Each structure stands twice: as C-alpha cells, then as structure tokens.
Fold this sequence. Notes:
The chain has a single domain (6-136), classed as Chemotaxis protein chec (3-Layer(aba) Sandwich), CATH 3.40.1550. Helices cover 43% and strands 24% of the residues. It has helices at 21-33, 61-69, 79-91, 107-113, 133-145, 147-161, and strands at residues 6-10, 16-18, 46-51, 55-60, 93-95, 102-104, 118-124, 127-132. Strands 1-7-8-4-3-5 form a six-stranded antiparallel sheet. The protein has a two-stranded antiparallel sheet with strand order 2-6. The radius of gyration is 17 Å and the shape is globular. It starts with 5 loop residues before the first strand and ends with a helix.
Amino acid sequence: MLFMGHAELTIDAKGRLAIPSKYRSQLRDGVRNEGSGSEEGPAPRWVAVPWPTGLIRLYPEATFERLASSTSESLTPGSDEAELEETLYGLAEHVEPDKAGRVVLPKAQVRMVGLPSEVVVVGVRNRLEVRDRATWAGEIERKFRSLPELVAKRESNQARER
Length: 162
C-alpha cells in the first residue's frame, strides 16, 4: 500500500479526525487484496504513534504489526533497545474508525506533539502523518526545493550500505 498526497482537515471538538476517503478506500482495497476483509466488513484499524517533530503517524494496523515483527525480539534486550521499545510501544495507541471514517486521536498524543485543530494529513509511503497545517504550508516550498538534495543523500547512503 502506498499512501501519497495530502488533504487539509480539522480535528473536531471531540478530537475526531476524518480520514480522507482516498486513504480509507485504498486501505480497504489493500486489506481485501490480502484476503482478510470484505466490502461490508468493519474498517481496518490504525495505530497512532506520536512523533517528536510535532506530528502523529497513523499506520494501518497490519503495516504496523508487520514492521514491528520485522525486528528481532529478545527476552533480554540491551538498555537502548529496551528503552526504544518502551517508548515507542508505550506511546502507540490503536484507533478505530467509526462508520463515518473518523478516528479519535488520543488526547495525550495531540497534547504531546502540540497539534492544533487545523491540520493536514500527508500520505507518506506506508503511513499517514497528521501535521500542523500552517507549519506544512510554511515548509512545503522549502521541501520541494530540497528534493534533489534529499534524493542525492539517499543514493549516497544506499551506495555506502552496499
């Protein structure tokens, strides 16, 4: 599943965010194609992860579980790994869409990252990111101009890893 594009939205007074229909239908299609859902079944759940750069990452539950299981597990993780797991999984929360496709963002996460009610939902490959709309609007031109540099950095890093 590849999420792209962005949509301007509002978090309502009850903390609900309407997942844009283009992402909801894409998620349902992806679940059906994996053979574990139906047209009439409940909407797939999301996992909300607050991120220190002022955003909340929303992963489809199946994607989050797949990524989580791709790392090695241990009964005795090192202190850095244990702290990372404690923080990441301790702050993550399941969010379940209602019939209108809205999710209630965890209040603690919204407060922690400082999200206002006016937000943008950005499709970022395997996840959605809920960001401050004004910040996104102020950074989008700079992000666009830095695209060639970001691609060059990525290619350089990939070459070093080979």
